[in-house]
Amino acid sequence: MKASPKTSSFTKRLSADPAIPSVDIAKDPNTPQELLHKARRLKAGAFTWTRPEPRKEYKFLTASPRALNDLGFDEKQESESEYFRQIVSGQAIVENPYPYSQAYAGYQFGDFAGQLGDGRVVNLFEITNPKTGRRYELQLKGAGKTPFSRFADGKAVLRSSIREFIVSESLNAIGIPSTRSVALTALPKTYAQRSASEKCAIVCRMAPSWIRVGNFDLYRYRGDREGIFQLSDYVIDEVFKGESKLCAQYADIINYEPKIKALGELTKYDKMYLEIIVRNAKSVAYWQAYCFLNGVLNTDNTSVLGLAIDFGPFAFMDYFDPNYTSNHDDLMLRYSFKNMPSAIWFNMVKLGEDLAELIGAGGKYLNDPFFKEKGLKESWIDDVTKRAEGVIGAGGDIFERIYIDQYLKLVCKRLGITPRPSDHLGVVASLFETLQHTKLDYNLFFATLQQQHIKDNFNVDAVAAAFIPDTFKDDPFTDLTKENVTKQLKSFLIDFKKRIEEEKLTDENRYERAHKFNPLFVPKNWILDEVIDYTQENEYDPLYLNKLLKMSINPYDKSQWGAEAKELEKRWTSAPSSDIQMLQCSCSS
Ligand SMILES: Nc1ncnc2c1ncn2[C@@H]1O[C@H](COP(=O)(O)OP(=O)(O)OP(=O)(O)O)[C@@H](O)[C@H]1O
Questions:
Q1: Are the CB atoms for 4 and 138 separated by under 8 Å?
Q2: What is the pLDDT at residue 398?
Q3: Pairing of strands 180-193, 59-63
Q4: Burial level of 242, CB count in 10 A (0-12/13-18/19+)?
Q5: Rounded distance between C-alpha atoms, residue 382 and residue 352, angstroms
Q6: For residue 578, is pLDDT > 90?
Q7: How many angstroms does the Cα of residue 155 sit away from the middle of ligand 1?
Q8: Interval between CA 118 and ligand 1 midpoint (Å)
Q9: Which atom of ligand 1 is nearest to the CA of 301?
């Protein structure tokens, strides 16, 4: 890490908080420290200079070998280096570029919440992996108070830090777009009051960009049209690497969408908006295909890159229940499994409203000097409003098409079959009916199915039995009995057999296709709870944590899970007893 060149495109291209206009002022010992660490509302600017608050004691716990590898580092050398450990915990900072916290706003549970911002995050710098050319921005979560801390303490507790550290790396390893975690450091003498007093930690995280829909919301709230232009140009040039890359992947769907055709030529701002929509539609499909719930899909937790971001009350669902919400406080089920697509679409509409002037202008007004300098003439307003509504409406159709297309593709990949447009009525419908009625472990179901021999004279009872865990008990109060579960499974297996015969797929073909999409392990809430308890009760012994990390970053390859703690591996890959399934979490972290 020491030798890697470090930059910050964000602070280079976007405007700083006018209260601390330069790094020299931030560094000046005469500058009041409250300016860096006390809650206040910024008048303007995309960020403010700040730095991690010093803590009494730091204890390095672990680093993700996969993240280090993606940064272009030697895993072992880096994680053992003192310099690395100091940087990822905020004990030392790189003075150039100087650390900062981002300003953003957000719609939380449907209501606008005003200025939010990095209230416990300090951004460090960007590093580009010389081999892949990929750039990542590193930041520290739980690094202390910033001007965005509002009424809170700037801390993150160890419990939520372990959860975020593990799940972000797990999602990425499964193939789901996510922000990442580099390293985890405990703060043994730093406590935070949550429902009880808890010990704290710092997670060093990385992402190609940390920009959220909330960054745009803030400019709209301030009425800062120059800020919206600046942020949009930054996102196009630096996050998406130029206009030519926008909307390239789904050009066929986008260009042939009738509502898009009606808009005439698309501007770079239209394309940026649609690119963000496409990425988020795909991500929701991933979350649903793997039954992952973020739990708080507010606009401040919706990345412009469609990355899973901010891991509070998240969960991998144990069994398929469309009404499940992982968020204990989400009484209206706003962020439940079935509502995730509409929650993200709500956020895309808010982004469209933030960008209304830019996407409404179209080629007709965008290059008009009056528009650039001053804004809209009275006579243009109807035209611009109509076009902005047109872009958002077209975006809605595209969102729906891409989400459905991607969801079906992913589910079929998990089954090892080739998707057909009618699948939602056929084998996929049969699958979800079975999953919902049998309450079998969702992710384990696919991993079990890919192993089964389903041929001409297959013994359907024996195959059905392979899905039912030894621990299964008839529920005396419902019809969830072994007999009914077997019946339901057999019905699905017969439908499935018909389909694979139509496709002329052998068991081997099917396994070859499916096993790359069916993780053998996902970190469920009950496993995370066990690891958190063990780590806290055993003076930060990293045995469980590192075992969980190995399993989470190698979900398709058991051979990488290590020779240690085999009993944990066995338990963590089995279906759990019903009393620890479908756990919920609260937002406090
Ligand atoms: N303990 C805390 N101290 C200061 N600010 C906080 C704290 N917890 C949450 N916030 C702030 O409240 C807002 C919403 O919190 P949320 O839990 O969604 O974000 P977060 O987990 O802190 O950060 P991120 O989204 O970057 O993962 C954010 O502006 C966040 O910075």
A1: no
A2: 96
A3: antiparallel
A4: exposed
A5: 16
A6: no
A7: 9
A8: 7
A9: 25
Rounded Cα–Cα distance for residues 88 and 63 (Å): 9
Count of other CB atoms within 10 angstroms of residue 385: 14
pLDDT over threshold 80, residue 152: yes
φ, ψ of residue 141 to 5 degrees: the values are -100, 130
- The number of C-alpha atoms within 13 Å of 478 and in the hemisphere containing its C-beta is 9
Contact criterion met (CB below 8 Å) for 320 and 125: no
- Ligand 1 is surrounded, with C-beta below 6 A, by 116-121, 141, 148-149, 152-155, 300-301, 310, 312
Residue 588 pLDDT class (50, 70, 90 cuts) = confident
Q: Identify the CA nearest to 390 among candidates 252, 259, 221.
A: 259
Q: pLDDT-based confidence at 384, cuts 50/70/90?
A: very high
Q: Each residue of 192-217: pLDDT tens digit? A: 999 999 999 999 999 999 999 999 99
Which of 50, 100, 118, 150 has the most ligand 1 atoms within 8 A of CB, as the residue to mutate? 150
Nearest CA residue ID for atom 25, ligand 1:
310
Question: Has the ipTM of the complex gone over 0.90?
Answer: yes
- CA 148 / ligand 1 centre spacing (Å): 9
Give the dihedral sign, CA 563/565/567/571. Answer: negative
Q: Which two tokens stand for residue 405?
A: 């297309």
CB-based contacts of 557, cutoff 8 Å, min separation 6: none
Mean pLDDT computed over 96-101 = 97
Strands (E) in 58-144, as ranges, are 59-63, 100-102, 105-108, 111-115, 121-128, 135-141
340-354 vs 213-222: helix crossing angle, rounded to 10: 40
Contact between 351 and 299 under an 8 Å Cβ cutoff? The reply is yes
Could you tell which of 203, 310, 586, 587 is best to mutate to test the pocket of ligand 1, judged by most ligand atoms within 8 Å of the CB?
A: 310
Distance 122 CA to ligand 1 centre (A): 12
How far apart, in whole angstroms, are the C-alpha atoms of residue 276 and residue 209?
Answer: 13
Q: Please compute the mean of the pLDDT values over residues 84-100 and round it to a whole number.
A: 97
CB 203 within 8 A of CB 161: yes
Cα Rg of the chain, angstroms: 25
The closest residue, in CA terms, to atom 30 on ligand 1 is 119
Ligand 1: which residue has its CA nearest to atom 22? 120
Whether pLDDT at 222 is above 90: yes
Distance 154 CA to ligand 1 centre (A): 8
Q: At what angle do helices 482-502 and 460-467 cross, to 10 degrees?
A: 120
Which residues face 193 on adjacent strands?
Answer: 197
Please give the pLDDT value at position 73.
96
Dump strand ranges (E) for 321-478. Answer: none
Measured CA to CA, the distance from residue 115 to residue 217 in angstroms comes to 9
Tokens 């009625």: give the residue: 437
Is residue 571 over pLDDT 80? Answer: yes
Atom from ligand 1 closest to the CA of residue 146: 4
